[in-house]
Design a protein that fits this description.
heterotrimer, A alpha/beta (439), B alpha/beta (236), C mainly alpha (287), B: 236 residues, alpha/beta, Rossmann fold, six-stranded mixed sheet, four-stranded antiparallel sheet, 10 strands, C: 287 residues, mainly alpha, ABC transporter involved in vitamin B12 uptake, BtuC, 11 helices, globular
C-alpha cells in the first residue's frame, strides 16, 4: 500500500507536467481576500460548480461575486454609521441536495451567512424545510422559474428570483401560433425541469388548437447524439420542434436536426441560452437557428445598462475563463444581491432576517435603467416581479424582443406598465400573461 | 554453467524451495527427480525468473540472474519449457514458434534457420502450422512446447515434466526427442520429472528433491540403483 | 425505409465511437485483467488536447487529431507504468481505487485548467450530403470511416506483426509469454498506450459534432463496459460487434419504440444476452 500511495502522488505531477508542456495557461486561483475594516456580512451560495450543471452554477455565482465587489468598492453598506463589507462564501454541491444541506450547515455555522443563494429547485426544497428554525434562520434566495412553487412551499423567508416559466410557455406558444405553425414535435431534456416545461407547453399548445406530433426526450446533460430522437420526430412532419434543456445539449439538437435535413422552426425552453447556442454554432448559427423562438439574448435586452454590465462581466469573468458569455443568471443574481444589500440598509440590521426580508418590499422597484435586470415588486408569496423577455430569429437576424409582464392583476395595471415601459425604453412590445393562470 | 547456492523460495508463506544447491555444467543432461509437490516446478520457475527467491544466488554463465525478469533470462540463453506447456492456445502453431524466438526477433535469418531445424525435428508442426495450438492433442502440444522453447536457441533448456499426462508411447517419443536435442544439438538440459524411470534412463546425472530440499544427488546410474529412489519413484 | 436507413446510419455512427472506446477497455482487460473505469476520462482528455492544439496552436484538424493520439499514447503508457504496474501483485480492489483516483484526478485537473464549461472544435467538414434519402453530415461519415480504418489497422497490427502476437500471447498466458522472453510489462504499457490513443481518436473524431466537457466520458465508459461484457470479456471481435450492435439497438429502439428508453434498451440488451449466454457473444467460458 505504501508504494501505491507514492505512485498515486506521482501521477498528478506527471500528468500535470504533460499538460503544462502542452502549453496551457496555469489555472487562476481565485481568492477573496478582504480586510474587514468594520463589519462583515456573509452572503452564502451553494450550487453546482462541478459536474454537468457547473457552468450554470458558475454563472449565477459570478453575478453575486460581481455585485458584492461593486457594493464593497462603493463603500459597503452603512447601518447606523457602521460600515459593513460583504463577503461571498460559496461551496460546490454538484446539484446534489444532500451536499447542499451539508453546505448550508457550513455556511451557517462556519461562515455565519445570513442569506443563501441556490439555483437548483431540487436542492432548494430541503433548504425550505429548515430555514425558519429559531436561532438559525436564514434567507433563501431561490433561483427557480418552476411556477407556483412559492405557493406550494410557502416560506416567509424565501425570495423567488426569476420569472415563472408559465409566462414563457404562453408567450412562446402564442408566437409559434402567429407563425402559422400547428404541428409540434417535442425533443426536450429528460430532467424534471425539462419535463415539467414540455408538459405545460403541450397543454397550452393543445388548448390553442395545436397538435403534438411526437413526444420524445433525451438526456441533454449526458448525451451528445440526439439523431435517433430527431429522426423519429422528423418522421412525423412537424412544423417546429420544442427543444431545450442545458444550452450545450440544445445547441447539439438544433445542429443535428439541421444536419438531418429539418427545415422547420425551433422553440427553446427558457433554460437554453440563444446567444450561447449561437456562439457555439459559429458562423452557420443564424442559418441553423432561423425561425427560433427563445428567451432574449442578454445583449439584445432593452435595458440600457447591459452594454456596460456585459463589458465589465467579460473582463471580470469571461476573460478569466470563469464564464463563456454573460447570462441572465448572472444579471438576475447580481441585481438580487443588490436588493439584499439595500434591504439590510433599509432594515437597519445585518442579522435580523425577518426584518431584512420585510424590507425587500420597500427597496423595490429596481429598474433596468440602473441595473442589468429589473424587479418591479414582489408578490405576497415572495416571488420578485421579474420581467421575462423572448425574441425570435428570423431571416438571419434577431427580431425585437417581446417583454412579458405576469404580475398585473387587471388590464388597467398592465396598460399602465406598458405605458411606463414605452416611455422608459422606447421600442417595447409588452405582453400580459396571467399568473397564477386562471383555471 | 548454471549454479544455484542456498536458493529458497516462498509460495504464499510456505518455503516451497529450501536452501537448494545445484549445478549443471556445459553440455550435461541433468535430471531433477521428485514427487508431486516436492518443489520441482517452484525451483524451475525460480531459475527462470517467474518467481523471485528470498535468499540464495543463481548464476548462469557466470552472471547473477536471480533478480532478472524472465525475458532477460531467456535473452541470456536459459529457457524454461514450463509445466502445463503454457502455449498460446488461440494462436497458430507458427505464431507460437515465432514468439518462441521473440528474443531473437532482429535475427530474421537465424530464426528462419532454427524454424526449419525445428520443423525437421517435429515434421507434424510444419504440416499443421496454421492450426491453433489449443486444438492439438496433449502429446502434440508437448512437442510444440519443446519446439517453441528451442526457437530461442537456448544454451540451457529446462523442461518441467514433459511426460505429464502423456500415453506411454508418447513418453517414449518425447524422451527420444529430448535426448536428440542434447546429443545432436549439444543443448544443455535440466529435466524435472516425476517419472524417474524415464528421466534416469536418458540423463547423465540427477538430483532428488523432497519437500523443497535436495536429498540425494549422483550419476543417473547410481540413482537408479539407489534403494530409496527405486522404492519411492520407480516402484520396483 | 428512409427512416430505417437514417436510423441505421445514426446507429452505426454511435457504434463507431463505442467500438473505439470499448476496444481499449477490452484490450486493457485482456492484457492486465483490469476493468479500466478511467477510460472515458482518457477519451475526454484526448478531446481536450485536440481542442487545445487547434485553438491555441492553430493546428489544422487532422494533425491535431494525430498529435492528440500521440500525446495520449504517452500518457497511457505513463499511467500504466507509474500507477498500475506497481499494483500488479495487489488485490483487484487496489486497481479499482487507482482507476477511480485517476478518473477523478483527470476530471478535476481538466476542470481547473479549462473550466467547467463546454468547448467546441470548429467542424472541419460542416456540409451534409444525402445518401439514399438519408441526410448525413460529412463529419459523421468521416467518424464512421475513420473508425473502420482504425479498427482494420489495429487488427492488422495484432494479427500480422510480432509485437501484435506478443499482445495476444500475453492476453492468453501471461507467464507463458514471460517465459518465452516477452517483456510482459512492456506489452502492458503498450496496450494501455494504444487503448488511450484509440480513445483520443474517438473523442477527436466526434468533438467537432459534439461538445467537449469534463464529464463527456462518464456515460460512454459505462457503455464501453456494457460492450466489453456483452462481447465476452477481453474478446476483440466481441467488442467490435458489440459496439455496433449497441449503437444500432439504441438508434432503432430509441427511434421506433421510445426515446425515453434509449438507454434502457442498451442495458436491457446486456441483461438479456448475459441471461442467454453468460460469457457474452464471443466469450470462451472461464478464462
Amino acid at each position: 500500500m505504501k508504494r501505491f500511495s507514492k505512485n498515486l502522488l506521482l501521477l498528478p505531477a506527471c500528468l500535470l507536467a504533460a499538460v503544462m508542456a502542452a502549453g496551457c495557461p496555469p489555472a487562476e486561483q481565485e481568492e477573496e481576500e478582504e480586510v474587514a475594516p468594520a463589519g462583515e456580512v456573509v452572503i452564502g451560495y451553494s450550487g453546482p460548480l462541478s459536474g454537468p450543471a457547473a457552468e450554470y452554477g458558475q454563472d449565477g455565482l459570478n453575478g453575486i461575486i460581481m455585485a458584492v465587489e461593486d457594493i464593497n468598492a462603493a463603500g459597503g453598506i452603512v447601518i447606523n454609521g457602521q460600515v459593513y463589507n460583504l463577503r461571498v462564501a460559496y461551496y460546490d454541491d454538484m446539484a446534489d441536495p444532500t451536499v447542499t444541506m451539508t453546505n448550508v450547515d457550513r455556511l451557517l455555522d462556519r461562515d455565519g451567512a445570513i442569506a443563501i443563494f441556490n439555483m437548483v429547485y431540487t436542492c432548494t426544497l430541503p433548504m425550505l424545510e429548515i430555514n425558519r428554525e429559531a436561532g438559525r434562520e436564514f434567507l433563501i434566495m431561490a433561483y427557480t422559474s418552476v411556477p407556483l412553487v412559492e405557493y406550494q412551499h410557502a416560506n416567509e423567508l424565501a425570495v423567488w428570483l426569476p420569472p415563472p416559466f408559465l409566462g414563457y410557455v404562453e408567450t412562446k406558444a402564442r408566437k409559434a401560433m402567429e407563425q402559422g405553425w400547428r404541428r409540434c414535435a417535442i425533443v426536450v431534456d429528460s430532467g424534471a425541469y425539462g419535463q415539467a416545461w414540455s408538459r405545460t407547453f403541450a397543454q397550452y399548445w393543445q388548448a390553442m388548437g395545436g397538435t403534438i406530433t411526437y413526444d420524445g426526450k433525451g438526456s441533454y446533460y449526458a448525451d451528445t447524439d440526439f439523431s435517433t430522437q430527431i429522426t423519429a420526430a422528423m418522421a412525423t412532419n412537424p412544423e417546429f420542434m420544442l427543444i431545450g434543456g442545458p444550452s450545450k445539449g440544445t445547441m447539439l439538437v438544433a445542429e443535428q436536426a439541421r444536419e438531418l435535413g429539418f427545415e422547420g422552426g425551433f422553440v427553446f425552453l427558457d433554460q437554453a441560452k440563444i446567444d450561447w447556442v449561437a456562439a457555439a454554432l459559429g458562423e452557420n448559427a443564424m442559418e441553423i437557428l432561423d425561425n427560433t423562438i427563445a428567451v432574449v439574448a442578454v445583449e439584445h435586452s432593452i435595458y440600457p445598462t447591459i452594454p456596460e454590465f456585459t463589458q465589465r462581466y467579460n473582463e471580470r469573468f469571461v476573460e478569466q475563463g470563469k464564464a463563456t458569455i454573460v447570462t441572465w443568471e448572472a444579471a438576475i443574481q447580481y441585481t438580487s444581491t443588490y436588493i439584499l444589500a439595500k434591504a439590510m440598509e433599509a432594515a437597519g440590521s445585518v442579522d435580523d432576517i425577518f426584518a431584512i426580508r420585510a424590507a425587500i418590499n420597500g427597496v423595490l422597484p429596481v429598474y433596468g435603467t440602473e441595473f442589468p435586470y429589473e424587479f418591479h415588486g414582489i408578490t405576497d408569496a415572495g416571488r420578485l416581479h421579474a420581467v421575462g423577455s423572448i425574441a425570435m430569429i428570423q431571416d438571419g437576424a434577431y427580431q425585437p424582443p417581446i417583454t412579458i409582464y405576469w404580475w398585473p392583476q387587471n388590464q388597467a395595471e398592465f396598460d399602465e406598465l406598458s405605458a411606463w415601459a414605452k416611455e422608459t425604453y422606447g421600442e417595447v412590445i409588452p405582453v400580459w400573461v396571467q399568473y397564477p393562470p386562471p383555471r | 554453467m548454471l549454479k544455484l547456492e542456498q536458493v529458497s523460495t516462498r509460495i504464499g508463506g510456505y518455503r516451497a524451495v529450501n536452501s537448494v544447491c545445484l549445478e549443471v555444467r556445459q553440455g550435461e543432461f541433468v535430471s531433477l527427480i521428485g514427487g508431486n509437490g516436492a518443489g520441482k516446478t517452484t525451483l524451475m520457475r525460480t531459475i527462470a525468473g517467474a518467481l523471485k527467491p528470498f535468499q540464495g544466488s543463481i548464476q548462469f554463465m557466470g552472471a547473477a540472474i536471480e533478480k532478472l525478469p524472465p525475458d532477460r533470462i531467456v535473452r541470456a540463453g536459459l529457457c524454461l519449457c514450463p509445466e502445463g506447456r503454457r502455449l498460446f492456445p488461440q494462436l497458430s502453431v507458427y505464431k507460437n514458434l515465432i514468439l518462441g524466438a521473440y528474443t531473437r526477433r532482429n535475427d530474421r535469418l537465424g530464426v528462419q534457420r532454427t524454424l526449419s531445424q525445428v520443423y525437421e525435428i517435429f515434421p507434424v508442426l510444419k504440416v499443421r502450422k496454421e492450426q491453433p495450438a489449443g486444438t492439438f492433442s496433449g502429446g502434440e502440444q508437448q512437442m510444440l512446447a519443446i519446439a517453441r522453447a528451442l526457437m530461442s536457441e537456448p544454451k540451457l533448456l529446462m523442461l518441467d515434466e514433459p511426460s505429464m499426462g502423456l500415453a506411454p508411447l508418447m513418453v517414449e517419443k518425447v524422451s527420444e526427442i529430448i535426448t536428440l536435442i542434447n546429443v545432436e544439438m549439444g543443448t544443455t538440459i535440466l529435466l524435472a520429472e516425476q517419472n524417474a524411470h524415464m528421466a534416469l534412463n536418458i540423463t547423465q546425472r540427477g538430483y532428488v528433491i523432497e519437500n523443497g530440499k535436495v536429498v540425494l544427488e549422483g550419476s543417473s546410474a547410481e540413482l537408479s540403483d539407489n534403494e530409496q529412489v527405486r522404492k519411492a519413484y520407480i516402484g520396483a | 425505409m428512409e427512416l430505417f436507413f437514417q436510423q441505421t446510419i445514426n446507429g452505426i455512427m454511435l457504434g463507431s465511437t463505442y467500438v473505439l472506446v470499448a476496444l481499449g477497455v477490452t484490450m486493457i482487460y485482456g492484457i492486465m485483467r483490469l476493468p479500466s473505469f478511467a477510460h472515458g476520462h482518457f477519451y475526454m482528455l484526448g478531446a481536450y488536447i485536440t481542442f487545445f492544439l487547434i485553438t491555441l496552436y492553430n493546428f489544422s484538424y487532422w494533425p491535431a487529431l494525430i498529435l492528440s493520439m500521440v500525446v495520449l499514447f504517452f500518457i497511457g503508457g505513463l499511467v500504466e507504468r507509474i500507477v498500475f504496474r506497481p499494483l500488479r501483485e495487489q488485490s483487484q480492489i487496489s486497481n479499482f481505487i487507482a482507476a477511480i483516483g485517476i478518473l477523478l484526478f483527470i476530471e478535476h485537473m481538466v476542470t481547473v485548467i479549462w473550466g467547467p464549461h463546454s468547448h467546441r472544435i470548429p467542424n472541419p467538414y460542416p456540409e451534409h450530403i444525402y445518401l439514399f434519402g438519408a441526410s448525413v453530415s460529412q463529419q459523421r461519415l468521416i467518424v464512421i470511416l475513420a473508425a473502420v480504418v482504425l479498427i482494420a489497422l489495429l487488427q492488422l497490427f495484432i494479427k500480422k506483426t510480432v509485437i501484435g502476437f506478443t499482445m495476444e500471447a500475453t492476453a492468453q498466458d501471461r507467464e507463458g509469454a514471460a517465459l518465452v522472453g516477452i517483456n510482459v510489462n512492456r506489452v502492458s504499457s503498450l496496450t494501455f498506450s494504444i487503448a488511450c490513443a484509440l480513445a483520443a481518436a474517438a473523442a477527436s473524431l466526434v468533438a467537432p459534432i459534439f461538445v467537449i466537457v469534463p464529464g463527456m466520458g462518464s456515460l460512454l465508459v459505462m457503455k464501453a463496459m456494457v460492450i466489453f461484457i456483452l462481447g465476452g470479456l477481453g474478446s476483440i471481435p466481441g467488442a467490435i460487434i458489440g459496439g455496433y450492435i449497441l449503437g444500432l439497438i439504441e438508434a432503432l429502439g430509441g427511434g421506433y419504440i421510445s426515446s425515453e428508453y434509449k438507454d434502457v434498451f442498451a442495458f436491457g440488451a446486456l441483461i438479456l444476452i448475459l441471461a442467454i449466454k453468460p460469457t457474452g457473444i464471443f466469450g470462451k467460458g472461464a478464462a
